[in-house]
Design brief:
With 335 residues, the chain is of the alpha/beta class. It has two domains: 34-139 and 210-334, 3-Layer(aba) Sandwich (Rossmann fold); 143-191, no CATH class. Helices cover 37% and strands 26% of the residues. It contains eight helices and 16 strands. The chain has helices at residues 2-26, 46-57, 94-107, 160-173, 213-225, 255-265, 274-284, 311-334; strands at residues 38-43, 62-70, 73-80, 83-89, 110-121, 131-133, 136-139, 143-145, 188-190, 193-195, 204-206, 209-210, 239-241, 244-247, 267-271, 287-297. Strands 1, 2, 3, 4, 5, 6, 7, 12, 13, 14, 15 and 16 form a twelve-stranded mixed sheet that branches. A two-stranded antiparallel sheet has the order 8-9. A two-stranded antiparallel sheet has the order 10-11. Helix 3 (94-107) packs parallel to helix 7 and helix 5 (213-225) packs across helix 8. The protein is globular and about 70 Å long. The relative contact order is 0.19.
């Protein structure tokens, strides 16, 4: 019996060693030994990345020294005022954002991420060119679509699991002032993504993801230091650090839906990447903050949406805020 026990123990040790070797061989690279980690500078699509590249071209100590491609995604490597950076575009939408950011974290020694891009305003206090740096990001289209009840079209047949989750959310809302105020919009009933990360035994529902407090503070400091950001006309823009943003695989261009987003999430802005970026950073324990410059009031126009008119302008104002934040990151690294 003792021999059998020893045999099992040795086989278990052998299995664990093999499993450990496989994890090292097959898993992502480990960058624990890298002392000077990198900052990822991220945008979603072409006008935004062009604004970043153009801004870097005017700064003597901001250089792109090498360009790499992984699965077709372009990653530009370089330095910003002595600190290592990697610049890339996620592509539009939640799936592209999650894929490209996770690839970057697997391939480069990143410990901070700063994203800049455009967004649609949900709060009408924002005008094109204005900037929001939300403290929290929510998924707005993680939902349950259900049929109305036969005997009452104003009520809906909710699945049992969803009814149980709503009860849990209601209890949580009593202690969490930032939790969404869930209510349906017709057949659309909002829900939350379930997240898993190292150290957790099971997935947990996440109502939102919170930007790294130190980076939010740096954004506030940067705002006090940088010159007043203006539109090409000279009009000063409004910059707000804090509040909520919402993300979904939906281009929001509907006034009724915009009102619902304000009611449920108390949202200032809406776009299609940030919550995915936030989730990936959260799971990987990477610091992050996201800057969004306003292109339009979502669904607020008469007739066809002309948000593209302000794409380049909004990207330009957002880039000025981003550079101020990068300067604060450089200063913190030298302390």
């Amino acid at each position: 019996m003792k021999r059998f026990t020893v045999f099992l123990f040795l086989n278990l040790v052998s299995f664990l060693c093999i499993a450990g070797d496989l994890a090292d061989q097959l898993g992502p690279r480990n960058f624990d030994s890298v002392k000077n980690k990198w900052t990822a500078v991220v945008a979603a699509y072409e006008p935004e990345i062009k604004a970043i590249d153009a801004a870097f071209a005017t700064i003597d100590d901001a250089q792109i020294t090498e360009t790499l491609y992984f699965n077709g995604v372009k990653y530009q490597l370089g330095k910003y005022k002595g600190e290592p950076i990697v610049v890339f575009s996620t592509g539009v939408s939640t799936t592209n954002a999650a894929m490209t950011v996770q690839m970057a974290l697997n391939y480069f020694p990143i410990d901070k991420l700063v994203m800049m891009g455009i967004a649609g305003a949900i709060h009408p206090k924002f005008s094109p060119g204005d900037i929001a740096v939300p403290e929290r990001w929510y998924f707005h289209d993680e939902s349950v679509y259900v049929n109305p009840k036969h005997d009452n079209p104003e009520e809906y047949e909710l699945p049992n699991y969803y009814s149980a989750q709503l009860e849990q959310y209601a209890k949580r809302n009593k202690t969490n002032p930032h939790a969404p105020n869930y209510k349906n919009l017709g057949f659309i009933h909002p829900n939350e993504v379930a997240v898993i990360k190292t150290g957790w035994k099971s997935r947990q529902r996440m109502p939102y993801f919170t930007a790294t407090p130190e980076l939010i503070e740096m954004a506030q400091t940067a705002l006090k230091k940088i010159p007043q950001i203006t539109m090409p006309s000279g009009k000063p823009i409004h910059v707000e650090v804090g509040g909520n943003g919402v993300t979904g695989s939906v281009f929001v261009d509907n006034a009724k839906y915009r009102t619902w987003l304000r009611d449920v999430f108390n949202a200032n802005v809406a776009e299609m990447e940030s919550a995915s970026v936030a989730q990936v950073c959260f799971v990987n324990d990477v610091d992050w903050v996201i800057i969004r410059s306003i292109s339009d009031l979502a669904g607020g126009q008469k007739g066809k949406n002309a948000e593209s008119v302000f794409d380049a302008i909004a990207s330009g104002t957002g880039t000025k805020m981003m550079l101020g934040l990068l300067d604060e990151i450089v200063l913190a690294a030298k302390e």
